[in-house]
Amino acid sequence: MNTEQLLLVLQSAWQALPTLLAATPVTLAYALAAMLLGLPLGFLVALARLSRWSGLRGLSSVFVSFIRGTPLLVQIFVIYYGLPSLGITLNPLAGGVIALTLNAAAYLSETIRAAILSIPRGQREAAISLGLSPSQTIRLVVLPQAARVALPSLSNTLIGLVKDTSLVSVITVVELLRSAQLVIARTFEPFGPYLAAALIYWAVSSLLELVQRLLERRFARGG
Fold first, then answer.
1. 147-169 tens-digit pLDDT
2. Nearest-angstrom CA–CA distance, 171 and 80
3. With a threshold of 0.85, does the pTM exceed it?
4. 75 Cβ partners below 8 Å, 6+ apart?
5. 24 vs 163: CA distance, rounded Å
6. Which residues contact 7 (CB under 8 A, 6 or more apart)?
7. Reduced to 3 states, what is the DSSP secondary structure of residue 91?
8. DSSP letter string, 21-55
């Protein structure tokens, strides 16, 4: 690549930047919505996998295995393009959020389950012997410690969701990647817009990593 070509790439990236920045909040909204919805769902799935009822454990295990064993892109297609054949039609917003939420919930459930299991069983038994109910034991003893253990994985899941939102572009959601594609369709110059999109993804992920490190330090001081 000579100097003239490099300047053209940088110019196209700069010209695409306002459009891509305008679409970045859509990407963040999808990622945050999936995280906020997936976290409680993942917690319920984790509790189901730790349940004494074999049926509940079996159903939750099948859910996690299916979601983790199939590509997110296929899940988006099944939800958005497949469900209408069953009479369930979703708009791109709902279809994208549901697919991302279910995917996040499966991975978050494993993170939460592992964090809960990392807390020594003796602590739960001691809490119950002191008169705490099982729900109080979970809320007051187990979860505060499990949250510290799970924080890095939870943060990594959110960062992964930011990048995974690029897949909802296949159902016409105008997020960051889709905006880059629309710019390319006008300018016929792919390198610059894609490069600008990659840099925005990188910047957002780096910011989330910084927040993660700050939270880890705060938890460490609290410990």
1. 888 888 999 999 999 999 999 99
2. 8
3. yes
4. 67, 99, 102, 103
5. 11
6. none
7. coil
8. HHHHHHHHHHHHHHHHHHHHHHHHHHHHHT-S-HH
